[in-house]
Structures are given as structure tokens and as C-alpha cells.
Amino acid sequence: MSKSSSPTHIRNFVRKLATCLGATIVAVVFVAGFIAYFVTSIDPQTHVRYDGFGRVLSDSPFFARMIFGQERLWAGWSWFIGDFIIFWGGLAVGAGLVSYGSKD
Fold first, then answer.
1. What does DSSP say about strands 73-74 and 58-59: parallel, antiparallel, or unpaired?
2. What is the C-alpha separation between 40 and 45, in angstroms, rounded?
């Protein structure tokens, strides 16, 4: 067995790959969250507002306005739940991969 294919070198490569993949996932999740919640556009003909992913925005419910502020718009319950799961799940997976990759 040559030295370049020894289990230690493969393990080190996998850990470096896990660290890079985890950091990439965390960065993508943050960029997607920024696009979803801070980028909006308005159709000049219909005056409909869209978020950065093209989802139609509407007024948020009363309790959400208390938390996010009076002018906060949202795409609806299903998108809120999906965004929540993707954001926090992506952070957990990314952090787990980075943690695995940084073990000694």
C-alpha cells in the first residue's frame, strides 16, 4: 500500500472536504436568507411585491408584525416554515460538517 492512499491521508482529505463543504453550506444559507428577507421588488403595473426569489409578498399576521415591525411582509405560512427549516437545518448541517472536519 502506498503512502498516498493510506487511511490517514484519506481521513485527512475527507475532513478537509467536510470543512469546505460545511463552510460553503453556511455561506449559501446566509446568502439565501438575505435574498429572501431583504431583497424585494415591485411590479410597476400591478404593484405586487415580490421577495428575492420571486415569491408574492403580503401583509404579515398581527403577531408577526409585533415581532418584525409594522412594515414587514411575508410570503405565507408554508414559505415561513420552509425557510425556517432550511435556514436552521442548513446551519446545523454546515456547523456539524465544519466541526467534524476540525476534529483531531
1. antiparallel
2. 16
- Whether residue 90 is contained in a domain is answered as yes
Entry pTM: 0.80
Q: Is residue 30 part of a domain?
A: yes
Mean pLDDT of 92-99: 96
**Cβ neighbours for 12, distance < 8 A, ≥ 6 positions apart:** none
Task: Determine the pLDDT at residue 3.
Answer: 55
- Residue with the three cell numbers 421577495: 51
Q: Check if the beta carbon of residue 49 is closer than 8 Å to that of residue 71.
A: no
- The count of domains in the chain is 1
Query: Which residues lie across from 51 on neighbouring strands?
Result: 40
Strand partners, 74: 58
67 by DSSP, 3-state: which?
helix
For 6, the enclosing helix (H) or strand (E) is: none
Q: How many CA atoms lie within 13 A of 22 on its CB side?
A: 18
- Check whether 70 has a pLDDT greater than 70: no
By residue range, what is the domain housing residue 34? Answer: 7-101
